[in-house]
């Protein structure tokens, strides 16, 4: 075979078929967990994008045995997210890198890739089709789909439609894959529980292979404001992005191009940049050559007077909902949360939210390591914790002694949530966040403030406990002291029983006041 004959092109589906490990499908346990996670994320996004209170049901059922370590597991998930237009259903489920997540907007997913990777993994391990039922407006559509891996195209095996008599709008997805059900199930259950913590406005139901129903019910009807699509900030662009924007806006003038294509660029700022580059404001963008595009990109990235990205496009959980979720799932004795002020890294807006829950039904860490619940755009991150920025802050940068808290032995849970139009994940598998200095600093400051609240409460509680012990000592020994005093006086002094009871009642009243202060 000649050297020329060795070169060939592969499709995106073929690429991920050959490199499934990079998307989290590296072993039977991780594959099943990742598939469930991607499907739940898609369902939650579908509901929240339309302002619908999520009602999601997940079924997991063992259909057979592949080998000693792998089960054939059927996954079925149903949501009430409003459905998908029928013309997009085949590509939305059967074509890799086709979807609605290619705009600059906060969402759990990045490319709409994870769900289709799960379907692809199911196909290559069990060779069964994907079944999709969609309720959309006045009809219900049913598809059986497989993916042509070489061509990256959907293969429609069956298509049906019927009137939507119930008025249900949403999506039901069902397929099989190989996975280690029994080792993956604890991780899946933990993922669902942590998702419920930051989604107190949703119903999430899990039905396992034995028919057991595990339900996480909503405790509030309030939802966060949905995220809004935004334009790229000039500090976050590169030459390729500017080239593409130029191609899409050839007929615009340079002044209009800068003000309409970038986030928070006003006319006066645009004129200053064009003046600096010696480009006329009314010149057509399409007339720019490659060298001028490079110069324009460099000027945008280096200009210091741009307004920072507007974080109103983001959708944080919010302090009220975060408190509600923590109370619902952890039932702590005391908690403190903080939603930090918006910041930016490399032109991307982000908000850090932190929470500390102490006591109540929370148990101390079993292995002496702080327990951190990490989230990125409301996705619980359960793997590769030691590589995450939150782990670094909690274990290396935070001085817990200053706040009289030791998360290694105290009953403490630490919650860290980062929301952004672009989460700086280190891998395609989306399991840990890079330690960007700006994000690192916000997590640290948030933990300091919430720790201070917890520390104040614990100091007051410990003070009350000391006082209660002191009063208990008085109550126990006061009658004995009085008796000894009477004996020492040779019977010349007699203390009335009423006076003793009066002293004891004062001690009891003071102790009651201390207990009420502690509860408050």
Number of strands: 14
Q: Going across the major beta sheet, what is the strand order?
A: 5-4-3-6-2-1-7-8
N-C termini distance: 81 Å
Structural class label = alpha+beta
Number of distinct helices: 13
Radius of gyration: 30 Å
User: Helix amount, in percent?
Assistant: 25-40%
CATH class of the largest domain: Alpha Beta
Beta-strand portion reads: 15-25%
Can you put this structure into words, describing what you see?
By secondary structure, the chain is of the alpha+beta class. It folds into four domains: 12-216, Histidine kinase-like ATPase, C-terminal domain (Heat Shock Protein 90, 2-Layer Sandwich), CATH 3.30.565; 234-302, Helicase, Ruva Protein, domain 3, CATH 1.10.8; 311-457, Ribosomal Protein S5, domain 2 (2-Layer Sandwich), CATH 3.30.230.10; 461-519. The chain has helices spanning 12-18, 28-48, 89-94, 114-126, 181-197, 239-248, 254-261, 267-277, 290-302, 319-330, 389-397, 437-488, 497-519, and strands at 55-65, 71-79, 130-136, 139-148, 153-163, 170-179, 203-207, 213-216, 334-339, 343-345, 348-358, 372-376, 379-381, 412-420. The strands form two sheets. Strands 5-4-3-6-2-1-7-8 form an eight-stranded mixed β-sheet.
């Amino acid at each position: 075979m000649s050297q020329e004959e060795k070169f060939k092109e592969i499709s995106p589906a073929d690429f991920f078929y050959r490199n499934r490990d990079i998307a989290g499908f590296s072993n039977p346990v991780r594959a099943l967990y990742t598939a469930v996670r991607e499907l739940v994320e898609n369902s939650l996004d579908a509901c929240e994008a339309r302002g619908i209170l999520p009602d999601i049901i997940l079924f997991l059922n063992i259909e057979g045995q592949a080998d000693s370590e792998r089960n054939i597991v059927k996954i079925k998930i149903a949501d009430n997210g409003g459905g998908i237009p029928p013309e997009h259903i085949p590509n939305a489920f059967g074509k890799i890198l086709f979807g609605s997540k290619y705009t600059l907007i906060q969402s759990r997913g990045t490319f709409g890739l994870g769900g289709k990777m799960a379907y692809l993994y199911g196909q290559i391990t069990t060779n069964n089709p994907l079944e999709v039922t969609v309720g959309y407006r006045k009809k219900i559509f049913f598809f059986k789909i497989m993916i042509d891996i070489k061509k990256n195209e959907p293969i429609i095996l069956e298509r049906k439609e019927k009137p939507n008599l119930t008025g249900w709008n949403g999506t039901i997805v069902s397929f099989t894959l190989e996975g280690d059900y029994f080792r993956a199930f604890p991780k899946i259950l933990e993922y669902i529980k942590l998702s419920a913590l930051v989604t107190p406005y949703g119903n999430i139901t899990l039905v396992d292979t034995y028919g057991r129903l595990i339900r996480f019910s909503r405790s509030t009807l309030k939802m966060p404001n949905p995220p809004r699509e935004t334009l790229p900030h000039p500090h976050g662009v590169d030459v390729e992005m500017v080239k593409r924007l130029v191609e899409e806006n050839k007929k615009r003038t340079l002044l209009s191009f800068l003000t309409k294509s970038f986030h928070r660029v006003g006319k006066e700022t645009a004129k200053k940049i064009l003046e600096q580059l010696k480009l006329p404001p009314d010149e057509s963008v399409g007339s720019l050559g490659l060298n001028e595009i490079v110069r324009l990109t460099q000027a945008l990235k280096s200009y210091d007077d741009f307004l920072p990205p507007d974080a109103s496009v983001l959708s944080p959980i919010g302090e009220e909902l975060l408190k509600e979720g923590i109370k619902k799932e952890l039932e702590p004795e005391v908690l403190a949360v903080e939603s930090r002020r918006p910041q930016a890294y490399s032109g991307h807006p982000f908000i850090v939210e932190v929470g500390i829950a102490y006591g109540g039904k929370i148990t101390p860490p079993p292995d002496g390591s702080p327990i951190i619940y990490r989230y990125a755009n409301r996705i619980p991150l359960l793997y590769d914790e030691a590589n995450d920025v939150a782990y670094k802050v909690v274990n290396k940068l935070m001085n817990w002694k200053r706040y009289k808290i030791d998360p290694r032995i105290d009953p403490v849970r630490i919650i860290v949530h980062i929301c952004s139009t672009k989460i700086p994940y280190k891998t395609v598998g989306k399991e840990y966040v890079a330690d960007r200095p700006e994000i690192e600093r916000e997590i640290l400051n948030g933990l300091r403030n919430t720790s201070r609240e917890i520390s104040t409460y614990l100091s007051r509680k410990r003070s009350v406990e000391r006082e209660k012990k002191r009063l208990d000592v008085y109550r126990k020994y006061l009658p004995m002291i009085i008796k000894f005093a009477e004996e020492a006086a040779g019977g010349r002094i007699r203390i009335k029983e009423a006076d003793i009871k009066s002293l004891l009642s004062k001690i009891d009243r003071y102790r009651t006041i201390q207990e009420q202060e502690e509860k408050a």
